Structure formats: structure tokens, C-alpha cells
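Page header: ASSEMBLY MODEL / two components / 859 residues total.
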Amino acid sequence: MKTPSFLLLSSLALALSAAVADESYRLETIAFPEGVPPEVGGVGFTPSGRIVVAMRRGDVMVAEPVADPKAFQWKRFASGLHEACGLHIVSDHEILVSQLPEMTRLVDEDGDGTADLYESVASPWGVTGNYHETNHLVPDGKGGHFLALGTASHNGPTFYNIRGDYSKTGRRGRNFSAANWKGWILHRAADGTITPWASGFRMHNGLLLDRAGHLWAGDNQGDWKATTPFYHVEKGNFYGHVGSLVWDPEWDPAVDPLDLPLERIAEMKTPAAILLPHETMNRSASEPIQIPEGTVFGPYAGQILLPDNNGRRITRLMLEEVDGVHQGACAQFYEENGLHLGNNRVVFSPDETTLYVGQTSRGWGQPAEGLQRLAFTGKTPFDVKTMTLTPRGFRLEFTEPLGDGGLSPDRFQFRRYRYEDTSNYGGDPLDVSDIAVTSVKRTDGRTVEIELDRLDGGGWVYEMTVAELRSESGQVRRTGLFCYTVNRLKR
Amino acid sequence: MSIVRFLRSGNRFRMKAPLLAILALASFASPASVLAEDRFLTLSNTPLGSREEPLVLRTFLPDPGLGRAVLSNHALGARARKYAPGKGDVEGFVDPTPGLPAAIAVNFGTDLSYCWDTVECRLLYAWRGGFLDMTNYWGDPAIGRRAGFQYLPGLVGELVYVTEGSHPLGLFDTYTEDLKPVYLGYRLVAGVPEFAYRLGEATVKVRIEPGDKPLEIVAHYSVEGAKAWGYFESGYDFKQEDAGEGSFRVRIQGKPVAASAAAEASYSTEAPNAEWGEALFTTLGCFACHSRDGTRGHGPSLAGIYGTSRPLAGTDPVVADEAYLAESIVNPAAKVVDTFPAGYMPPYPIEPKQVDSLVLFIKSLAKP
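Prediction written out in full:
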């Protein structure tokens, strides 16, 4: 499907999206004791400000963050966990962790700094013996939790004897839901009640409950996910990966979801709020995180960062609600410049100045591991802060006043494409076409309104390439590539 | 040191990597601890604890042919058609592999390691000589990724205990056939996990550690909420000692467990055949209850059973033909031989070709 011109544009876009040497964010790599592979399955902070790292081999380590990234004094808080990939730090003595087979409460009962109690809090899901069935959890703000349960991969086995329930129909597929609740988000209330919340996920490797109370999840490109999606998650919705449907209590067991017509699946599923074009934006979404209020972490307060588990990048998401539907744009926030592959889990330091990024992809992708931290240097980058939809095009708000130089329409190039989710692994952009810019006008010092020749809803991705604009103070724009997913048009 | 041959999938290709890994370790494993300072897990794929500082590791674990009588609270996976994205079902099948999805391994150095399961809530097996080779799961440190399809650690050393049959601890006033144990977690007591589970109204805690004698396994039990209980180990010498107030100790004398000859079997899965049936007999753990040499077990021996008349409780005898044998695998409750307990054997919803292979294997067994 790729045309030569598309390839050319792709590589151009890639070149434009690569960040230049970064004056606004400082990256450091945190050291671990000799011989310890930092395969980070979870990161968090205790109320007293100590960082907690869950390693996929089984250890949970804590340290007081210090200025020297090589001088963290790591202590073992717990060990022996199986692929611990979700952390909720309750106190200095208590941590809730989601490991592959179980949600576990770790408690340091005698105050010696290491957990004595490993209480099984919940394990309502099945375990087949497949390496891909890792999970994540976030607190629901009311004493309960949301749990994201990944599907199994055909690159790994399932066992003769499994925990939970087995579905022969669910076992079919490239990624599959052979055991209960794989591909689902479950809600566990404070009283322990389990409620199936939403289905249709492939590998929703990370959940976020934002400050407004919205639940978000990314997913990984693959079967039934033509490109990496970012979802606004609501109870009862289905998000497109069909195998999980066999665990819906309402599902007719005689129907194999893989045999459903594509049109039927399209009717059933809730579209992504944002589609992230493969590789140029993100390859494997992991844990989303919301940027703190104020300017403590730069000019992007309230926006969401989405790390890439299979790329050296963290993507920035600019969301808005249009006609009752969540949608928005994505752009690179930090790319290359020393950032490792395998970006998996993120947490802000308690003072909100520093983003800690835990990395691992052993067994999932190219080898990568580590813990890095990214701090705002105080120098505000010149960048498109928000890209929002207008009835005829888009409004760009910049972080700094624009310079006088050329705001001619050719400074903004647009094209659009769409994706079709099928049982194939990933999918190319379809119906790629250039879209003419009909007008560009500055509405105030920081805002530009762009009108396009053609604007349609229904999931079209509008890709904008911004020329090397300068700010009033002479800074070159930080980011050049933006992709807005138009689900609904603005009236 | 003898080599544990426990991966009895019967599939040579899949067995090769773990066996080689174990062979290598048998030659080079050192009893010295390989944990970093402060006992962090390191890049070493053969972590080892000690008697003083046991190592607990939750991971996928090998199944040494435990069988459905032991794993009765697990669901049974099934063979699946091969599937290709965009094409759908394609030629060939994918069989499940043997393994334990939710067990916990505990190591005391080279003296003793064991596998305790959170689904069955019992000690499943124990071994000595080393702990686990995690290479298949954690990958080769040199390249940083997993090495094989199995993702299954290998056992390092020699099996000295493998459980059989129903749970060794029976709680008489709460126990019913369909009561499932509920795992509650564990507490570390001087580094040793004290597992807790609930069975009906009762709560059981058990802490297992090496005894003073070679290969001795000591399990410290305490039971709350049950008035009476009984403990029984089949196949191992054991001694029960009262420790007062609902507590007791069981001393199990471990012994080297013979490797199964079936481990080396190789067979085709194109059409039903007796070799495949023999592998299934091991993989599914049928041997735990059905002997092939005439010895009485939890279920009838299969030695020379084909074509014989089977006495049934309260009705006319039937001849053990192909149809009877197949029915007894798929739906064991349909006809139960007199003097054997009804409802003991779970149904095995396996593929027709697998049933036929088991029948062919049973037919091949001579009278003792």
C-alpha cells in the first residue's frame, strides 16, 4: 500500500520529528548495584520521597533520590515477585503490586525496611503460562483499583494445566485470551468486588486515571490494532481486540469473535481518542502520565506523556473533547538524545520537577533496560503547546510569541490518512492524500489558525509538518510533526 | 549428580534446551551464593539462597508429570489449531506444554528446593543439588533476551519428592469434594515463607524447610477453624508430630525420584499412535493413579485391561473395548469400576486423536 511518495514523506517526517539537542530537559541515567539488571516493571514514590522500583526478575528496591545519579543507595524492600509490572505505593511500609498471577499487598510489619507479609489481595484472572500476560494497576481514587490484563502471544506457550478458566475459542488468534479476563480492564473496588470494566485490549501496558477522573489506556500495535492507539476508557466499552469478547458474560459462546465481519467489529468498538502513527509517533505505548500543573515541568501542564516501550521516545498527547468525544493530537516530547529503548513505567518525583522513566523490554522487544530521569531546565522551549480543532481546520497555540517571519500557508504542510484494524499484525496508513492549506492567520501573538481545503471526521489522522518557525526571541520551534485524530468535527 | 528429566512433553525439540541447560549446570553449578550485595537478583540465571537466607521466587515452574489428580483445581488447556494473522486457521496444531502457572519456588541452597502451588495450596515437589536455571525465561545475559519458546525455567539437581493424589491434609469437618482452597499469601518467618490458605471455614498455615536428616522435609502446619484433620503421604515415609494448639509437624523422608523412560519418547501427532498415548499418559499425569504394571492405585491398573470384563458397582459388567476406554477418559463418571471411588477422576476433555492415542497405548500394555 505504501507509495514511493509516502515513503519519502515518512522519512522526511521522521527527520523533522527528531528532537534537536535539548536545552529544556536534562536527562540522567540512574545507576544500580553492580550486576543488577534494571528491568523496570514498576516505579513509584513513597510519601517520604523515596523512589521504589519493581524489577521484573522479582526484587522491589528503594532508594533516597540524590543529586548524583550514580550515588543512589539501593535497598531491597521485597523479592520473589513474578513480573511485577504495576505499583501503588500506599506508605513507607506498604506497597500494592500487580504481579503476573496476582495483586499482592507487601507489608513491612516489623519496621526493618523489608516486607514480611505478601498478602494475596486479588487474583480473579486466569494464568496460562504465557509470558505476554503481564498487567498493570492504578488506584481508582476511592480505595479500589483498575487492573489491565494483557493477552497472550503466539510466541509463547500455554500450559496443559492453567489457573482460572480456559476457553478454546479464546485460544484462537495471534494474540489471544485463552484464560479469563485477558484483554480486559477489571475494576476492584475497595471492598474487593470485581467488576469487568472494558474489553478489547491487546497489550494495554499502562493505565492512567487523570486529575479530572478520566481513565486512559494505550495499547500496542499488532493484530486488531493497525497502529498504536490511545483510549479514553469507559465502563462497558469494547476497544477492538476481539479475543477478549469470549469472556463477556453476555457473549454467545457459539460465536467465535474472530469470525465476525469487520463491519460488525467496527460497529461494536469504541474508536481511539488518538491514533499514533507507527514509528513516527510511537510503536508500543506503555504507561501514560499527566504532566503536573504550573510550569514546574515546562509549558505543557495537564497534557499526557506516553512512553514508547519499543522506541527511544516519549510522546506528548494534547487532548480535547469535541462533540462529547475525546480526541486530539500527538507529537514527540523527547526523542533520542540519550533516552533508552524500552520506556515502560513513569512517575513524577513528589516535587513534580522530575520525571523518572523505567525501562525494560526483555522478552518483548529489542533488549533495553534502565532507569532515567528527565528534569525541566527552566528554559521554556518554543513549541506548539496545543493543537485543537476548529470548524475549518486547526488552532495552534505556541509556548512563546511567534516571530514576525513568514506565516505563509506553505509553512504548514498537511496530509491525511486512516487506519483499518484487522486480524493482520499492524496496518499501513490508507488513502494517504495531501490536504491543501487554504489560509493561515495569526489571531494573537501566540496563536495561529489554519484552514484546510478538506476536513472530515470518523477517525482520519491529519498529519501536520511545521517548517522551522522562529519565536520572537529567535528560538527555532522544538517539534515539527503533529498528528491529530479527527473523530468528530467541531460545529 | 544425576539429571532430572522432568519435561516429559515427549517433544524432543522443546526438551532439548532445558535439558542442555541442566546438563551444563550439573557440571559447573557452584554452591556459592550468586546474589549481589544486599541479596539483589543479578544477571546470573542460577540464583541460589541458603539455609540462613532462603530465596523465594515466584515464576512459571516445570511440571514433573503431576497429573490431574494433583492439579485438580487447575483448568485443562487444549490443543489448538495453528492460526496465522490475516489467514485464520492454517495447517497444523499447537499443543499445550507442561508447566505450572502460579506456583512459588523456595530454595535453601543445595540442600533443598521446593515448589509450593498457590492453586492447589500444597507442596508439589522438592529437589536438591541446586535451584532453578532461569535462562529460558530471563534470557541469555549476553544478548539480553529469552532463549527459547518455553519461557520455562529448568530445575537444577535431582527430584527427591513428588506429591501424588489428593491433598495430603484432609480437614474432616469442612472437607467436601468441590471445596476449593483459596490462597491467602505468605508471611516470611526468619526468611521462610509461611503460606496461608483457606478451605471452607478453616485457615491453614504451612511453613516448609529442610529437616536435620538428609533429604528430610519438615512442614510446620497450623490449622484454625477445623475440629479434626488427617495427614497422609503416599509413597514417602512420614512422621506426624503434634506441636499443640492446632499445630503439628510433618517430617517427610524424601528420596531420589526415578526419571521416567517416557521422557525420551518421540512420536508423531499426525494420526493417533501408541507412542503419543504413552507421552500423554505421562504428561497428563495418568500414571499418578493408574499403574501400567498391575499395582493397585487410586484408579484401576491399566496392565492388560483391554478386552477384559470390568465389574461395575450395582450393574452388569462391561467389556473394556475401545469405546469403553475412550469414554472412561472423556467422561470417567459414566462407568465406575466396583471398589473404586466414584467422582475421583476428573474428565479429560482432550482432542479425539489424543483419546485414541491413549486407547492405543492402553491396548499395548500386556497383562502383568
